[in-house]
Amino acid sequence: MQFTAAQIAALIGARIEGDATVSISDIAKIEEGRAGALSFIANPKYESYLYETKASVVIVNESLQLEQPVAATLLRVPDAYAAFATLLEKYNEFLTADTAKKGIEQPAYISDSAKLGADVYVGAFAYIGNKVTLGDRAKIYPGAYIGDGVTIGNDSVVHAGAKIYHQCRLGQQVIIHSGAVIGADGFGFAPQSDGAYKKVPQLGNVVIEDQVEVGANTTIDRATMGSTLIRRGVKLDNLIQIAHNVEIGEHTVIAAQTGISGSTKIGKQCMIGGQVGIVGHIQIADNTRINAQSGLSKSITQPGTAVNGTPAFDYKSCLKSQAIFRHLPDWVQKIQQLEDRFNASLVKEG
């Protein structure tokens, strides 16, 4: 399908700079732009491609100052990345408008006590347990497991092969990707006098609020008592482990392979990089930034803090320390040379 620059500008509220009638029928990265394609630039390090790209239309930030002439039609917006995301969302809605899945495929098991809302989709080989409630337009893809007493809100999606254990609650517009496990037992074992470990029953559940997205193969353990809480708007990448009784605040984002130990409380709008390790029973203040591969061993009480390293500490101080560390071999050599000169002078004087 084809769209003009003017039509796209109307969708994202952009100011047009160039030919408003030019048509696009494809989307491409700025460095791979070609005639008839739409692209965008949000990161300044890619700006050089703007002057070389063959893309017909490029979405850019309103603040971008051109250093050379540009052949493409520009669509200027306050935030190019957000505008591009909005455009892709609208395009996806258009593509799927006539193919939205509804109804019950067979074979699938649905308990007689389950309650299904309007326009629900249940894929083949899915399992819907006793007293499950599915909201309107909820989608349960093939091979998914929905345990007894689970509640899933309107417009939520559980992708193929995901598992939602008993009594967990999902809000509206939640997305659970394939292979994710919600509500498995927390890691609770009591050491015994003979050296063995006795399992501590995990009696709580997992509560996921509205507009949360959980990546593929991510696991969120049920609470020992009470609930493991994932607040509204949280975005979790693939391969994340969240332990029992953890609480993650609204609109926090966490990258892949991060592990969060039990009973840790994470604030609102935090950003946590990949492969971060966080110990249990600590608190992390709102708007905290934790760099990738950091290890956090104590609470962060000051909102807006940025940390790095293992153990993690102030981000800027960590970078300075890393810079010093890289020079240590040279400094050791210089100290050795000074010692040799000093010792040689002592020999001469002696």
Labels describing this entry:
350 residues; alpha/beta; Udp-n-acetylmuramoylalanyl-d-glutamate--2,6- Diaminopimelate Ligase, Chain: A, domain 1; UDP N-Acetylglucosamine Acyltransferase, domain 1; 2 domains; twelve-stranded mixed beta sheet; 4 helices
Topology:
Elements (H helix, E strand, L loop, with lengths): L2 E2 H8 L2 E3 L5 E2 L1 E2 L9 E4 L6 H4 L6 E5 L11 E5 L2 H17 L6 E2 L4 E2 L4 E2 L4 E2 L4 E2 L4 E2 L4 E2 L4 E2 L4 E2 L4 E2 L4 E2 L4 E2 L4 E2 L4 E4 L4 E3 L5 E3 L5 E4 L4 E2 L4 E3 L5 E4 L4 E2 L4 E2 L4 E2 L4 E2 L4 E2 L4 E2 L4 E2 L4 E2 L4 E2 L4 E2 L4 E2 L9 E3 L4 E2 H35 L1
Parallel strand pairs: 4-5, 5-6, 6-7, 8-11, 9-12, 10-13, 11-14, 12-15, 13-16, 14-17, 15-18, 16-19, 17-20, 18-21, 19-24, 20-25, 21-26, 24-27, 25-28, 26-29, 27-30, 28-31, 29-32, 30-33, 31-34, 32-35, 33-36, 34-37, 35-38, 37-39
Antiparallel strand pairs: 1-3, 2-7, 22-23, 39-40
